[in-house]
C-alpha cells in the first residue's frame, strides 16, 4: 500500500508536439492582427458617426466601461444581499429547484474564476453574466421560500442547498 | 514528474519581462513539457491540451509584469495553465456535466501497487474535474484551499471532488477501500477481452 501521490507522481510526462514556439509566434501575430482590425473597425465606425453628425452614446465609449462595470458590481452585491436574506426562508426545495440552484452556483463559481483573468471588455460581459445568474438564483430561492410558505405545493422530498 | 520547479535565470526573466523573444523562448522551452502535461492531465485531450498550453503561455507573457517573484516562476505559470484548463472545460459547455455530487465519499486512503499502464487507463476514465483536482492535489502539491480558490469554490468542494476521484479510481481498478487488489483485477478484465 502507498499514498496516491506516490502512485501518480511517477507517471510519465506527455511530450508536447514539436514546433510549439513557432506556433506560439503565429498565434501572437494573429491576435495582434485581430486587435489592429478591431481598432480599425472602431475608428471607421467612429468616423462614420462623426460624418453623419452623430456622437457615440456614452455606454460605447471606452471611458464609460468602468462605470458600467461598477453598476453591474453594485447590482451583483444587491442581489447577494437579497439572496442572503432569502436563504433562511428558502426551505421548500424540490429536486428541480435544488438542481437548478446547484447548476447556477456552479456557473457563478466559474464566472468568478474567469473574472480574475478578464480584461476590461471581457469583464463587462462576465459581470453581465454574473448579474443574470444571480437574478436566476434569487428567483429559485424565492420559489423555494414560497413553497415553504404553502405546504400544499411543498415537494415530498426536501433538499438542502 | 512535471518540472514547474525548474530554475529560471534573472537575466532570462528580465529579458522576457521587457518583451524580449529570447527570454520568452527560454521560458517556453523550460516549461512547455510541464505545462503540456498538466493541461493534458486536466483536459484528457491532446488538442485541447495543446490549445490550453499555448493560450497559457500567451497569457503569461502578457502578464509577466504581474509576476513579483514571491513564488518560483514555474508555480506562477502553473496556476495560469490550471486556470486556462478550467476555463477550457467551461467553454466547451462540458463543465456542468463534469461536476459530481458534493457528498463526501470516505477517506483519502492508500492504494496498492498499480502498474502505470493500469493507472493511466483508470485516469482516462475519470470525469475531468475530479481528475483535475486529483492531479493538482497529489502531483502538483496544491492544497485544498488553493484548489478551491482556483476553482472559485469551497474547500469542501475540493475535498469532495478528491474523494470522488479516489472512489472512482478504486472502482475502475476494482480496489476495495480497505483491502485493495487493484492491478490484478484490471489486468484480468483486460485479458478476458483479448
Annotation keywords:
A: 161 residues, mainly alpha, 5 helices, 1% strand, flat, B: 194 residues, disordered C terminus
Plain-language structure description:
- The complex is a heterodimer of chains A (161) and B (194).
- By secondary structure, chain A is mainly α.
- Chain A has five helices and one strand.
- Chain A is flat and about 65 Å long.
- Chain B has 194 residues and is mainly alpha-helical.
- In chain B, α2 (21-43) crosses α7 (128-138).
- Chain B starts with 9 loop residues before the first helix and ends with a helix.
- In chain B, 42% of the residues are buried.
- β1 (2-3) of chain A pairs antiparallel with β1 (110-111) of chain B, so a sheet runs across the interface.
Residue-averaged pLDDT of chain B: 80
| Oligomeric category | heterodimer
Q: Helix fraction of chain B?
A: 55-70%
| N-to-C series of helices and strands of chain B | HHHHHEHHHHH
User: In percent, how helical is the residue content of chain A?
Assistant: 55-70%
Please tally the helical runs of chain B, counting DSSP H or I stretches of 4 or more residues: 10
Binned strand content of chain A: under 5%
**Low-confidence sequence ranges of chain A:** 55-64, 153-161
SSE-based structural type of chain A: mainly alpha
**Unreliable runs of chain B:** 93-98, 100-107, 177-194
> What is the H-and-E element order of chain A?
EHHHHH
Q: Per the principal axes of the C-alpha atoms, what is the gross shape of chain A? A: flat
What structural class is derived from the secondary structure elements of chain B?
mainly alpha
Radius of gyration of chain A in whole Å, from Cα? 24 Å
Strand content of chain B: under 5%
How far apart the termini of chain B lie comes to: 32 Å
N-to-C span of chain A: 37 Å
H/I helix tally of chain A: 5
Largest interface: A-B, 35 and 49 residues
Please tell me the overall pLDDT of chain A: 74
User: How would the global form of chain B be characterised?
Assistant: elongated
